[in-house]
Amino acid sequence: MKRALALLLTAVTATSVAGCSLDAQSSSADTVRVVVGYQSKTINTVTAGTLLRAKGFLEKRLSDIGKSSGVTYQVEWQDYDTGAPITAQMVAEKIDIGSMGDYPLLINGSKTQANERARTELVSVTGYSPTGSLNMVVVPPGSPARTIADLRGQKVSASVGSAGHGTLVRALDNAGIDPKTGVEVLNQQPQVGASALESGQAQALSQFVAWPGLLAFQGKATLLYDGAEGRYPTFHGVVVRRDYAGSHPEVLDAFLQAQLDATDFLNEHPLESAQAVAEGSGLPPEVVYLYNGPGGTSFDPTLKPSLVQALQGDVPYLQSIGEFAPLDVPGFVNAGPIRKAFADRGRNYDAALASTENPSTLSGRDPVCDIPLTDPALAGELWIDGKDTTQPAANPDCLLRAIREAGANGEKVRAAYVPDSEFGTRWFADKSVWVRDGGRHLPFDTAAGAERYTAAHPGTAVVDYRQALAGAV
Is 136-230 a CATH 3.40.190.10 domain? Predict the structure, then answer.
């Protein structure tokens, strides 16, 4: 952990990285430059990153401003694997706007506050989960581990200071395991950790989206722990250097308006958005759609009190990993700019703030069971190869029937998604653990979840995926 902390501190205090030779403040009277730091593979930031960039919403907004003011705006996008290097560049005043997860946001606020030119504030949310289901711990296929407690004494790969690492720390705490001594944390970038898991160097990997879903989709990992088990909200958000926002308020406003553009587009066209993000990130579209499809991540830019409160509850994490300056969370959060962006569009910010519903949910009529979708907690979704739309399923058994019928018709299933019966987490149907309960089948995203259910419901039994497909009626 000492070496991990040293590497983290090196990352967040660096003053330059390769390819970043221009100062973010280098703007002339008729040209304004804005440098945006984002993480293309972190799906829950796409409305302020990959999708936003792919659709050109920010450039269009700034171009419209420039037509009336005579100012030219230049947008530079910088892609990173985690939030730490974005924070390092903001400390160095080389990135103006950045997006990252909740734990990295804490570090960002803490590390930038000593310098007024670098000091940041949290101005919007990108995606969130009210239960914490966005981050997960996976193990190799065939691992004997059944719960987070089984990792005691094991090596776990995580990016120290990331949302994935924060999830691991909270999960270990809840299991009564000291995060500092109970496991050996290997401080690794996500892709390095994925290799470490596959080679056996690490017995588990704790990461933010989309890495757990990617490894499960590829058959390289099995889900051990769903962050929803902690029942603690997690989110990703946008930070801006206050000095930059003060000098160029029109840029921040354009960015937030563009984020709203991207959020609307994603919620209205989730499949098209997933394909655009997949192209921009290199991730499989089936994995992207797991998270930004209906019932996945809640893409809602409002700074909800529950999320701010959760961020305050995460502050002890700073002290647990090193000497970070305390952060005044209420002073770090500034809802003024996003509230203004809503008002400028004639939208009711307070109504959106109070809403806890996922803006994107499945609806319509199940074509196989021939019934309407009435309960989002049961609704699933089938994506058949060669089709530009997906097929809704009213409940898990209807989804299993649809998969079975697709196979009988010679159609290839790209992906099938179903909500976990315990926590509601959207997951792959073929990677779920299925339980037969009388005449119905219930999916669980972890073996532990299925075992909790069967222990509480005598007469039920765990069945494999093929058995569930064959038995669905």
Answer: yes
Within the chain, all domains assigned CATH 3.40.190.10 are found at 18-129+234-354, 136-230
Question: Is it the case that residue 295 has pLDDT exceeding 90?
Answer: yes
Reply yes or no: is the peptide bond before residue 455 cis, omega within 30 of 0.
Answer: no
365-471 fold: Beta-Lactamase (3.30.450)
pTM check: above 0.90 = yes
Q: What is the mean pLDDT of residues 168-175?
A: 95
Cβ-contact 369, 394 below 8 angstroms: yes
Q: How many residues make up the chain in this entry?
A: 473
Q: Over the range 195-229, which residues count as b (16 or more CB within 10 Å of their CB) and which as e?
A: bbbeeeebbbbbbbbbbbbbbbbeebbbbbbbbbb
Axis crossing angle, helix 249-268 with helix 270-281, rounded to the nearest 10: 120
* Amino acid, res. 314: D
Residues 396, 422 contacting (CB under 8 angstroms): no
Q: Which CATH superfamily is domain 18-129+234-354 in?
A: Periplasmic binding protein-like II (3.40.190.10)
Instruction: Please name the residue that has the structure tokens 């690490």.
Output: 202
Query: For 264-287, how does the pLDDT look when each residue is reduced to its tens digit (9 = 90+)?
Result: 999 999 999 999 999 999 999 999
